[in-house]
Amino acid sequence: MKVLVVISSSNANGLTAACGEAARQGVVDGKSPARVINLNEFNILRCAECDNGWGPCLTEHRCRLEDDFSQIQDMFEAAEGFVLVTPVYFGDASETFKAFFDRLRRCEATKKNGKKSIVANKPAVCIAAAGGSGHGVIHCLGEMERLVQRLSAEAFDYIPITQRTREYQIETIHDGLVAMCTPPPVEQTLPLSARRRSRSGRRSKRRIGRRRTPKDS
Ligand SMILES: Cc1cc2nc3c(=O)[nH]c(=O)nc-3n(C[C@H](O)[C@H](O)[C@H](O)COP(=O)(O)O)c2cc1C
After folding, report:
1. Which of 19, 29, 58, 78 falls 20 to 30 Å from 176 in CA-CA distance?
2. 71-100 pLDDT, tens digit each
3. Beta-carbon count within 10 A of 135 CB
4. 147 with 90: CB under 8 angstroms?
5. Is 40's C-beta closer than 6 angstroms to any atom of ligand 1?
6. In angstroms, how far is the first alpha carbon of the chain from the final one?
7. Quick one: pLDDT at residue 196?
8. Largest Cα–Cα distance of the chain, in whole Å?
C-alpha cells in the first residue's frame, strides 16, 4: 500500500516531525512504500471563497488558485493510504493544515452522481501532537474525524500524543502503521459461514485443552 504521510509543522525537529518519522518507519516495516511531505514547505494559499462562495471546486472539483495545491491533490490521488499529522494549536489543527484541507474538502466532498472523492475508502490515520498540557487534543482529533468523514476516507485510527505520552505513543504510531499496511489474516477474508465454522472449531479445541482446576479433580 502506497502511503502518503502528511505533516504540517514549521518545526523541523518537533513532535509533529517525530510522529511523521514513526509513521514512515511503520509503513516501511509494514513492507510498503512511504512518502512524507510537510505542508509547511509548500505554497498553500487560503481558500478565496470565489464568486460569492463557490468556484470551480463545486463543479469541476479543482481549485482556481495558482499555488502548490493541485500538486498535493495529485499526491493524494496516487496514494492508497494516508497519515495526517498536525500540531495542536489552540485546541485545533495548525493554520497550514486547515488551509490545505479546507480546499481539499471543497474539491472532494462535493463529488456526487457516481464521482468519487480521490481518497474515498482509503484508510487514514490521524495524529494530533500537543504540548505539555494536552488541552484540546481530543477536540483537534474530533475535527480531523469530521474531515475524514467528509472526504469519504476510511478512518483507520485517531492517535493523540503529548510531550508526556510521547514515548509510548510514538510506538503506537509505528505499530498502527505496520497494522494498516499489513493485509488482514486470511480468516477475516473468508465468508461469514466459514468464519463461524472455523471459530466453533477453535472454541471446542479450547474447551478440550482447558487447564484442570483443583475443583475439577
Ligand atoms: C500557537 C500555539 C498554540 C498552541 N496551543 C496548544 C493547545 O491548545 N494545547 C496544547 O496542548 N498545546 C498547544 N501548543 C503546543 C504545541 O501543540 C506543541 O508544542 C506541539 O509539540 C507543537 O508541535 P511541534 O513539536 O511540531 O512544534 C501550542 C503551540 C503553539 C505554537
Report:
1. 78
2. 999 999 999 999 999 999 999 999 999 999
3. 14
4. no
5. no
6. 53
7. 72
8. 82
* Separation between Cα atoms, residue 131 and residue 30, nearest integer Å: 29
- Does 22 contact ligand 1 (Cβ within 6 A)? no
Question: Residue 101 carries which side chain, given as an amino acid letter?
Answer: F
Select the CATH number that applies to the domain covering 3-183 from these four: 3.40.50.360, 3.40.50.1390, 3.30.70.120, 3.40.50.720. 3.40.50.360
Ligand 1, atom 6: closest residue by C-alpha:
89
Gyration radius from the chain CA atoms: 21
Q: Is the beta carbon of 89 within 6 A of some atom in ligand 1?
A: yes
- Identify the pLDDT of residue 186: 78
Candidates 9, 38, 88: which one to mutate for ligand 1, based on the most atoms within 8 Å of Cβ? 88
Give the tens place of pLDDT for each residue, 27-79. Answer: 999 999 999 999 999 999 999 999 999 999 999 999 999 999 999 999 999 99
Q: How far is the CA of 162 from the centre of ligand 1 (A)?
A: 9
Backbone angles phi, psi at 152, to 5 degrees: 65, 25
